[in-house]
Amino acid sequence: MKTNSLLGLLCIFFFAGYAQDKDITTSLYKTYDTYKELSLNKRRIKHEDLQPLLEHYRNNSDFSVTKVGESIAGRDLSLVSVGSGETQVFLWSQMHGDEPTATQAIFDILKFLESFDFKEEKEAILSRLTIHFLPMLNPDGAALFQRRNLLGIDINRDALRLQSPEGKTLKRVRDSLKANFGFNLHDQSTYYNAERTEKPATISYLAPAYNYEKDINEVRGNAMKVIVFMNKIIQKYAVGQVGRYNDDFEPRAFGDNIQKWGTSTILIESGGYTKDIEKQEIRKLNYVSILSAIYSIATDNFEKIEISEYEKIPENDRKLFDLKIEGAQYILNNKSYKIDIGMNRLEVNTEDYSDFWYSSRIIDQGDLSTYYGYNTLNAEGYTIKEGKVYPKIINNIKEAQALDFIGLLQKGYTYVRLNQIPKEWLSSPFPMHIIGAKFQVPELMLQPGINPTFILEKDGQNKYAVINGFLINLENGEGTLKNAMIFR
Questions:
Q1: What is the DSSP code string of 358-409?
Q2: Do residues 102 and 270 lie in contact, with contact meaning Cβ atoms separated by under 8 Å?
Q3: Neighbour count for residue 239 (Cβ, 10 Å)
Q4: Largest Cα–Cα distance of the chain, in whole Å?
Q5: Domains of the chain and CATH, by start
Q6: Can you give the pLDDT at residue 11?
Q7: Residue 22 pLDDT > 90, yes or no?
């Protein structure tokens, strides 16, 4: 009788704790816009964008902002700390300069922690934890929107040799804090999908191994438990869109070594989400899941989770295209072939690295039945046709703006010749490619690496146009296209 009573009491405590976490998660999601740091609203953020925010927290006595190092180019690396608890939680982001999603989420979290809301939950967090944020570990890479630092190395492969000042700073901070928990925050390719599904891996996790045997001790086990907890949160808002990285041991990587040095390390990778080019919805999911995880650490609720649940998270795969055309007919040397085409939109930075335009490519073709697309067209019964050059030479921009582009696409034209192309134009603002007065468009020969531009015909009529890897429905004009190409 006493045993049954004790079991019942334990169940009450467990489910009360789970409900508490669930409630804060829902509230965090619903109130997110209140705490979103609006000054950071695009991916290509730079070191100078963070300085006013860091100065703001430097002037708030509840926070500590400390210079902990410098990048190769002499940019300050700052650590923001808050809380008074014994358990040390350390979050670092943008080790790779072109992976800024979590950097934005960190400043959302700081704004939340500064607010006067959620008093009970924040009291639990800040009295039991001390939280340390090192945003933008690679500011030189961020300035150029590139993965590597100015030395040209991947900081995440510098944990042993410690040749980069950024890597030295990361290790020194981790060691000085003797952090109990670490959040290693990254972005991953948007072309990752959850294993054997068409769903993007919007968030992927890893509790890195600390040896080749992939042993699980208490430190790594706690990281796995926190990941299981975070997965359950993400599933509420992005069902089936979570992946798990392969946990092969990488002796040069910081995540693997920080796990080895005694910090329960949670790798979080922000991937893709439909129609979320700037990753603002993914930023929100980072905010909600990380804050919820921090609350779970503060209340010890993660300890109840079974480690075995970690292996049930689907593995990451990389089988997504931006656009996939299925089963189209392709005529080559007077013979017809059935072909699938997978296309990706590759970003090209503007000169100041503050924006980008697309230069798309065919990535693969043939039987792509095991691959998926953010946008997929079943093209059975459609024939691929080469796009034509509009025969009239356009003299200026005003004339070009007056063209009926959908009407021209319906007639099979995919290129327009412009007599004077503005020097400052990097890409075409129209849903057709712009070519120079003397440029000769090569004959269409489908193969990986070329720009995907063609017409899809059915029953003698042009039904779709693919322009720079974007699909346009020629019957209703529907389709989103950021830019076409300029060929001078």
A1: EEEEEEEEE--TT-EEEEEEE-TT-EEE--EE-SSPB-SHHHHHTS-HHHHH
A2: yes
A3: 9
A4: 92
A5: 17-317 (3.40.630.10), 320-487 (2.30.40.10)
A6: 38
A7: no
